């Protein structure tokens, strides 16, 4: 007989082992499940982290772009500027410097290494014309109306402030008169106070409806003092008178440029003159409107030629008026055909009845500028027109969306001088 004691002990031992094994298995299962949970939680957490990271990335992406823009604006690339020594560098004021001619003059003087202050009331000028200089250490832009006095220290003043195209100067004739009279007096007063030389941007319009062709500087002109253009024509004539009064009475150094028709990029869409009219019509597929048979002639200079002439005159010792223009004449019909070809436009040329008193000829005599300044226009007409066409095409694209595109105005038939000027 087997005693109960050892058997029970054996069973007990076996049970203990099983229990240990079971406990061990349970423990391993538990650890495995805890680890599994842990791994799951980690991956959930990783996913969460990833989401948060994505959200942060989304939020800071635009900030990054803004920082890049800011960095760009700090390291803005300006057109190349010459270095001028203190002695050669001038402080130059350009009134009307945000306009068509003024902005090109600003470019030239800045690139030549001078310090340029542009004063403009933005009546017809735009900040966009000079924005590429904003922030440059040699450049300053002042929003100011020349009808109010201005107190700054300068060596030279290019006085261009005045609306120039007929729709613009006829818009507010009294303001045009004030700008050309009070504005010019203010600038001459400034020139006197600081000992600066002043160049007046006068105009071929001082010759009015000329009775001599081509017009030289000795011609006194033929102006209707009460016509619709008188605010501009007479305004410029009296501005010239003021210059010579300040020269004779106060010893102010003056230069007077009689500027003839000029064209190029940054000219006004509603300039109203033949070049911009034809380019806009051709680009927009509208008929190019020619008044009369189109045999009347016009002469246009490209803006860079004018700018070179202005700078040459300012730095010359010629104090009497000088014509700056391109004497190369073309008929209106030639202009229409050439512009149509250069634009590659299918527009037709439409002949309308002749505008009354439309001048048959407009041509500068530039012998004085050639002789005394060694200046004459050099930019071929086609080259200039291509640049102007490129500019107008871009402007139309720029303004395409919901913006007003001024349409060329038709010739006005009335007494006195009219279109195609
Ligand atoms: N463009 C031409 O074919 C032409 C021909 C003859 C003369 N000019 C003369 O050249 C000058 C420049 O002409 P543009 O074609 O560049 O004209 P524009 O209209 O483009 O420029 C004239 C500038 O003067 C500014 N201005 C007008 N009144 C002002 C005031 N009261 N105070 C401050 N700024 C004022 C305008 O905002 C504009 O920026 C004008 O004096 C004009 O009479 C031009």
TrEMBL record:
Domain UDP-glucuronate decarboxylase N-terminal span(s) in chain numbering: 7-79
Pathway: Nucleotide-sugar biosynthesis; UDP-alpha-D-xylose biosynthesis; UDP-alpha-D-xylose from UDP-alpha-D-glucuronate: step 1/1
Main EC class the enzyme belongs to: lyase
Family matches, as Gene3D superfamilies: NAD(P)-binding Rossmann-like Domain
Enzyme Commission number, as recorded: 4.1.1.35
Record key words, sorted: Decarboxylase, Glycoprotein, Golgi apparatus, Lyase, Membrane, NAD, Signal-anchor, Transmembrane, Transmembrane helix
Name the UniProt record assigns to this protein: UDP-glucuronic acid decarboxylase 1
Gene: UXS1
């Amino acid at each position: 007989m087997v005693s109960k004691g050892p058997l029970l002990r054996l069973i007990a031992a076996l049970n203990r082992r099983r229990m240990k094994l079971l406990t061990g298995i349970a423990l391993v299962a538990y650890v495995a499940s805890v680890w599994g949970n842990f791994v799951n939680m980690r991956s959930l957490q990783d996913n969460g982290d990833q989401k948060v990271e994505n959200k942060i990335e989304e939020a800071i992406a635009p900030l990054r772009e803004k920082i890049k823009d800011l960095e760009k604006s700090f390291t803005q690339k300006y057109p190349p500027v010459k270095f001028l020594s203190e002695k050669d560098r001038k402080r130059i004021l350009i009134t009307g410097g945000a306009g068509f001619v003024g902005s090109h003059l600003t470019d030239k003087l800045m690139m030549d290494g001078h310090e340029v202050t542009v004063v403009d009331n933005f009546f017809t000028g735009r900040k966009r014309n000079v924005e590429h200089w904003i922030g440059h250490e040699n450049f300053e832009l002042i929003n100011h109306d020349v009808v109010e006095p201005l107190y700054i220290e300068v060596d030279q003043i290019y006085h261009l402030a005045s609306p120039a195209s007929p729709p613009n100067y006829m818009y507010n004739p009294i303001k045009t008169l004030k700008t050309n009279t009070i504005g010019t007096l203010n600038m001459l007063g400034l020139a006197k106070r600081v000992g600066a030389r002043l160049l007046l941007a006068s105009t071929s319009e001082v010759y009015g409806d000329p009775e001599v062709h081509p017009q030289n500087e000795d011609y006194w002109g033929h102006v209707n003092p009460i016509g619709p253009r008188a605010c501009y024509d007479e305004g410029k004539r009296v501005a010239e008178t003021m210059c010579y009064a300040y020269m004779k009475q106060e010893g102010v150094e003056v230069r007077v440029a009689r500027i003839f028709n000029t064209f190029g990029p940054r000219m006004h869409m509603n300039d109203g003159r033949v070049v911009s009219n034809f380019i806009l019509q051709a680009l927009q597929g509208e008929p190019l409107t020619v008044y009369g048979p189109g045999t009347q002639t016009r002469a246009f200079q490209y803006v860079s030629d004018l700018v070179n002439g202005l700078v040459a005159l300012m730095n010359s010792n010629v104090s009497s008026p000088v014509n700056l223009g391109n004497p190369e004449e073309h008929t209106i019909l030639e202009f229409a055909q050439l512009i149509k070809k250069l634009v590659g436009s299918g527009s037709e040329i439409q002949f309308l009845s002749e505008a009354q008193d439309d001048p048959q000829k407009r041509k500068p005599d530039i012998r004085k500028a050639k002789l005394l300044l060694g200046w004459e226009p050099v930019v071929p007409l086609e080259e200039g027109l291509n640049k102007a066409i490129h500019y107008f095409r871009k402007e139309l694209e720029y303004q395409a969306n919901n913006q007003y595109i001024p349409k060329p105005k038709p010739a006005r038939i009335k007494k006195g001088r009219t279109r195609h000027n």
